[in-house]
Design goal:
By secondary structure, the chain is an alpha/beta fold. The protein has one domain: P-loop containing nucleotide triphosphate hydrolases (Rossmann fold). Strands 2-3-1-4-5 form a five-stranded parallel β-sheet, with helices on both faces. Helix 1 crosses helix 9, helix 2 packs across helix 3 and helix 4 packs parallel to helix 5. It is globular, with a radius of gyration of 16 Å. The N and C termini lie close together (10 Å).
Length: 190
C-alpha cells in the first residue's frame, strides 16, 4: 500500500496535484479540507465549530481532525493507498497519523513538499477567490493562513526529513511540470 503526504503552503497546488496523483497511481485522495467543508455544508455541530476556526484562518484543533481521519481511513480498506492532502498540519497530527497507520500495519512512503513562495501563494489564493467562492480566500485570511503555515505547519517538514521521507518538489512551474516531477519521485519509490 502506497501512502503519501502532499505538503505545501495554502494555495501551493496540493489539491490539484493530489487529484492527478490519485488518478495516475490509483490512490484515494483524502483531503481534510474537503472533509471539513462537507461537515460545514451539512450544518453539523462539528461543521459549526470548524467554520469558526476556518473563517479566521486558524487550524482546526487536532482532536477533531484526527477523529475524522481515523474513521475515514477505516472506510478505505480496498484501496492501493492514500494521498493525504492537508494532513498532517502539526507535529502532533504527524505522530497521530503514524500511530493510526501503524495500528493498521501501514506507513507513510514519502512527503512531497510543494515549494512555492509566499508571494505566489497570495496571488494564487486571490485568483482562486474569484472563481471558487471560498470564504477563506480573502486578503486578511490569506495572510493569516500563510502566517499559521510558517509557524505551526512548516515544522512538520523536519519531522519527515528526520525519517528520510522528505521529497522537495518545485511548485511554481506549470501544473504539468510539477506533476512530472512528482510522478518521477513516486515511480522511483515504487
Amino acid at each position: 500500500m502506497l501512502n503519501i503526504v502532499i505538503f505545501g503552503g495554502p494555495g501551493s497546488g496540493k489539491g490539484t496535484q493530489s487529484a492527478l496523483i490519485a488518478e495516475k497511481f490509483g490512490l484515494e485522495h483524502l483531503s481534510t479540507g474537503d472533509l471539513l467543508r462537507a461537515e460545514m455544508t451539512a450544518g453539523t455541530e462539528l461543521g459549526k465549530v470548524v467554520q469558526s476556526y476556518i473563517s479566521q484562518g486558524n487550524l482546526v484543533p487536532d482532536k477533531w481532525i484526527i477523529n475524522i481521519l481515523s474513521k475515514t481511513i477505516d472506510s478505505l480498506k480496498d484501496k492501493n493507498g492514500v494521498i493525504f492532502d492537508g494532513f498532517p498540519r502539526t507535529i502532533a497530527q504527524a505522530e497521530a497519523l503514524e500511530e493510526i497507520l501503524g495500528s493498521r500495519k501501514k506507513s507513510i512512503a514519502m512527503l512531497l513538499d510543494l515549494q512555492v513562495t509566499d508571494e505566489v501563494l497570495q496571488q494564487r489564493m486571490l485568483f482562486r477567490s474569484k472563481t471558487s467562492g471560498r470564504s477563506d480566500d480573502n486578503p486578511e485570511t490569506i495572510m493569516k493562513r500563510i502566517e499559521v503555515y510558517h509557524e505551526i505547519t512548516a515544522p512538520v517538514i523536519e519531522y519527515y526529513k528526520n525519517k528520510g521521507l522528505y521529497q522537495p518538489i518545485p511548485g511554481t512551474g506549470t501544473v504539468e511540470g510539477t506533476f512530472a516531477e512528482i510522478s518521477r519521485c513516486i515511480s522511483n519509490y515504487k
